[in-house]
Structure formats: structure tokens, C-alpha cells
Specification:
- It is a single chain.
- 3% of the residues lie in helices and 21% in strands.
- The chain is mainly β.
- It has a 7-stranded parallel sheet, with no helix packed on it.
- The longest helix has 4 residues.
- The radius of gyration is 15 Å and the shape is globular.
């Protein structure tokens, strides 16, 4: 399920009954500030949250979405620490527009194949050279 341009939507309760979703894309949802409406989607394999600031997501992400492999967290100002992702088996990770700079928690992500980062912050990333050579790092502009 993909929902784009959600700036005017403030009631996300419709998502609470969609337990069996495997793919969820929520773009431009600044009013989505809590993981509550999607917390029951334990079968998600792909989760894209862009232009939202779900402040309670990171501490719970591995417990709530243990099957997520493709994770896109774009332009989420409160997302600064990758350590909570260490319990996931990620293949794709998109971090454009976030204040994340320490990539060292990704060193042990053996399944990781693609990582998207900010082009203009390339010199600021710690642990970039420690990533597996299997990881294709993509630098993009936001």
C-alpha cells in the first residue's frame, strides 16, 4: 500500500486494521507522529516513511516489524541512532535527509546490499569504510 501527499490527513486509524500488509509506503505525512496506527503490521517486509517524524519508532522497530528488510526513513529529524536497527535483517536502507552520521551499527548487517546516504554529507559519515564490500553505497541529493 502506498499513500503519498498525506499532509492534510490527521486520522491514521484506518491503518490499524491492515494487519497483513507486506509493503507500506507513507510519504509526506508530517502529522504521523506515533507508530500506533501501524504497530500491528508485524508482517511488513518493506516500510518507507518519508517526511514524517514518528518519534517513538526507533526504540521499538525490531520488536514491531521483525520481518522488515527494505527500510526507508527519509527526512526524519528525530532519527539519529542506527543501533536499534541491529536486530533487523536489512537488505536495503535509505537514510536521506536524516541527521544520522555514525554508520558503525551497520557493520554487522550481513544481508545489507544497498545503502542510500546524503551526497553533501559524505565526509561526515563515520564507519563508511568499515561496511562490507557487498554493500553498494548510493549518494544522493535531497
Amino acid at each position: 500500500m502506498a499513500i503519498d501527499e498525506m499532509q492534510e490527513i490527521s486520522d491514521f486509524e484506518v491503518l490499524t486494521n491492515m494487519h497483513k500488509l507486506k509493503h507500506l509506503v507513507l510519504h509526506r505525512a508530517p502529522r504521523l507522529s506515533t507508530v500506533a496506527p501501524i504497530r500491528h503490521m508485524r508482517d511488513l517486509e518493506m516500510l518507507h516513511l518519508v517526511d514524517s517524524d514518528v518519534t517513538d519508532l526507533m526504540d521499538q522497530i525490531a520488536d514491531l516489524f521483525p520481518k522488515v528488510q527494505d527500510l526507508q526513513l527519509g527526512n526524519m529529524p528525530s532519527f539519529v541512532d542506527l543501533a536499534p536497527l541491529s536486530r533487523l535483517t536489512l537488505t536495503d536502507l535509505y537514510l536521506i535527509g536524516n541527521p544520522v552520521r555514525d554508520l558503525r551499527p551497520l557493520v554487522h548487517q550481513r544481508a545489507l546490499r544497498h545503502l542510500w546516504l546524503m551526497k553533501d554529507k559524505k565526509s561526515e559519515y563515520q564507519g563508511l569504510t568499515e561496511l562490507s564490500p557487498r554493500v553498494k553505497v548510493h549518494f544522493a541529493e535531497y
